[in-house]
Design a protein that fits this description.
The structure is a single chain. This protein is α/β, with parallel strands linked by helices. It is built from 10 helices and 14 strands. The chain has helices at residues 31-42, 59-65, 99-109, 131-140, 149-159, 172-186, 209-220, 237-242, 254-259, 271-280; strands spanning 13-16, 47-50, 71-73, 78-83, 89-94, 115-120, 123-126, 145-146, 165-169, 190-196, 199-204, 227-231, 245-248, 262-263. It has an 8-stranded mixed beta sheet with strand order 5-4-3-2-1-12-13-14. Strands 8-7-6-9-11-10 form a 6-stranded mixed beta sheet, with helices on one face. Helix 9 (254-259) links the parallel strand 13 (245-248) and strand 14 (262-263).
């Protein structure tokens, strides 16, 4: 069972995006942020990281902060509980893309000069070791299995499985063309998010950070109105809007700040930690 939470506090759960929100210049938890999360945990307030990252690219941050809490991966397509006494987490939700649509997209990608990464739980398949792969390795400190798109398609076909997330990276024009093409062909089956001009992130339909809040609220026995959420990017807007208190970091996009109830300092200046200290008197 999750640690008991004091019912006297107006906010009883904190959820935060990772990249651009929680991490510092080195894409790590600063000592200040790690200490603040430990103090928050000691007060009985769970801190849950919500990200497009895979599980193995998130767990090291929990270890650095010294906390054992659930993680929301792939924008909500895969949610793990805290580590249980047997040394393993429990899966709270797992949702992969429609199998046939996923295979059709892989086939379509072969016609474009783009990088393709497919993720399933803790496995990352990349279709080549290129500058895009190297950038993701640098950002996440996780290494992929290199599998050309043809072999990737064959492997998923043989195993009869789909992916929790697909990441497509390439030049702006190719990504823009793919965005509109995929939206027209598969928009009823998958959600396609253009996180940068050169990035497409694809998940199963109706997967979002916002919807993950309901899963977490039920798990901890609270309401969504008792959640504080932090974010910086477009895919954080729904989460910030629906939480009891949505907080944008200072470097967030203007539309994200507009959706938030409060704005804190930039991520590289420990904005999340500073705000938590005020809210929870740490």
């Amino acid at each position: 069972m999750p640690k008991e939470i004091s019912s006297s506090l107006p906010y009883r759960l904190v959820c935060s995006d990772i990249d651009g929100t929680l991490l510092d210049r080195e894409r790590d938890l600063s000592d200040c942020t790690a200490q603040t999360l430990r103090c928050l945990d000691e007060k009985g307030i769970p801190f849950v990281m919500i990200s497009a990252r895979m599980p193995s690219a998130m767990r090291p941050f929990l270890a650095k902060a010294g906390i054992n809490r659930p993680i929301v991966c792939f924008n909500g397509a895969y949610i793990e509980s805290e580590i249980k006494p047997d040394g393993r987490p429990r899966v709270l939700r797992t949702r992969t893309m429609n199998y046939e649509v996923f295979l059709q997209m892989l086939t379509l990608f072969k016609r474009y000069p783009v990088h393709v990464s497919a993720f399933y739980k803790d496995t990352w398949y990349a279709n080549g070791m290129d500058r895009w792969t190297e950038r993701e390795i640098h950002n996440t400190r996780v290494h992929p299995e290199i599998v050309p798109t043809d072999r990737m398609l064959y492997r998923f076909s043989c195993e009869g499985m789909s992916a929790h997330k697909v990441l497509v990276m390439g030049e702006k024009d190719a990504i823009e063309e793919l965005y509109f093409l995929l939206s027209s062909l598969y928009g009823d089956h998958v959600d396609i998010y253009r996180s940068k001009d050169t990035y497409l992130e694809i998940n199963a339909k109706a997967i979002s950070k916002e919807k993950s809040l309901a899963v977490l609220a039920a798990y901890f026995g609270i309401t969504i109105g008792q959640i504080v959420a932090f974010g910086d990017n477009y895919n954080d807007i729904g989460m910030l809007s629906s939480a009891g208190l949505g907080v944008a970091v200072g470097n967030a996009k203007a539309v994200v700040k507009a959706a938030a109830g409060r704005v804190t300092d930039e991520n590289i200046s420990d904005g999340v930690a500073k705000c938590l200290k005020i809210i929870f008197d740490i």
